[in-house]
Amino acid sequence: MSDVTQLPVWLPWAIGLAGSGPIPGSGFPAEVLIMRIEHLLPTCLPGRRPLRILVVGAGGTGSAIVMGLPYLHQAMRAWGHIYGLEVTLIDGDTVSETNCVRQPFSWSDVGQNKATVLINRINLFWGTKWNAHPACFDESTLRSNCDRNPDLLIGCVDTRAARGVIERSVCKKSSYVAYWLDLGNNASSGQFVLGQPPNGRNRRKSERLRTVSELYPEIADAAAGEDPLPTCSAVEALERQEPFINQTLAASALAMLARLFRYGRLCHHGGFFNAGTGQMTCLPVDPELWRQLRKSERKRARPGSIGDGGLSERTSRR
């Protein structure tokens, strides 16, 4: 597989992004973005085979993503891509009683592996032959199956350290992952960012979609500290994370993927959602914006600098 990403298309856009709010970390409002650039899907995708997707994490967001993927699978087949999707879900965690409050598990699932429970349920209902991998994702996961690297890796992990492992895995020269979609959230807000990790498949070009860790390095930096570990109390769990945040982010991310695979182009590659205000702000495909974000992050990383919270308070929970 090779990188055949085409050059972006500049299009004048009469209606800008007014009202969508500022892009976190950019330093300027979205209203100033009056030109819209489009990212074009590489011509080798989806190809004459199923589109391979690896979902890492089967918690609140991961479960919402994988339960929505059958609808994308069906839609792609209806659009003429008869092979649809080939999905693998990886997670080494087991279902706890607290998980049954805001994740799609029942009391009868307690003690069983999350990935296995969800994939068995999907295969039984949809007649698919998707795969569950009841183990934790590590840097050897992709290397052990290098000839079948996923086209799209969807990260739904709950720590910076886990996100760092994904970053190091997909950015190796031996990796041929075309896209990395990362989702993360805190109690009442979150984000999703689609990027093309620099690796053996994606060349370092100016129009390459920047990954979440390139735009917001702290989100994959374990040295920045982690959020509190999951609680055993259902009430406390709901205090730390409101219901429906995961589902909102998952639905928005899946809608973005659907447009990419149907029309072969995107003018945004992520979004930020705030449940408190009800506001969703898109992340445009814009190299100048990416440059501003990196500049802002470097300034924030300087000793003695004061950050503004940025990416949903540098969210990590899944």
Short recap of the structure:
With 318 residues, the chain is an alpha/beta fold.
What does this structure look like?
It is built from eight helices and eleven strands. Strand 6, helix 4 (160-170) and strand 7 form a beta-alpha-beta unit. The chain has an eight-stranded mixed sheet, sandwiched between helices. A three-stranded antiparallel sheet has the order 1-2-9. The chain has helices at 60-78, 99-102, 114-126, 160-170, 212-215, 234-240, 245-263, 287-301, and strands spanning 9-12, 35-40, 51-56, 85-90, 131-133, 152-155, 179-185, 189-195, 265-266, 268-274, 279-284. It is of the alpha/beta class. Residues 1-19, 304-310 and 312-318 have low confidence and may be disordered. It starts with 8 loop residues before the first strand and ends in a 17-residue tail after the last helix. The protein has a single domain, classed as Rossmann fold (3-Layer(aba) Sandwich), CATH 3.40.50.720.
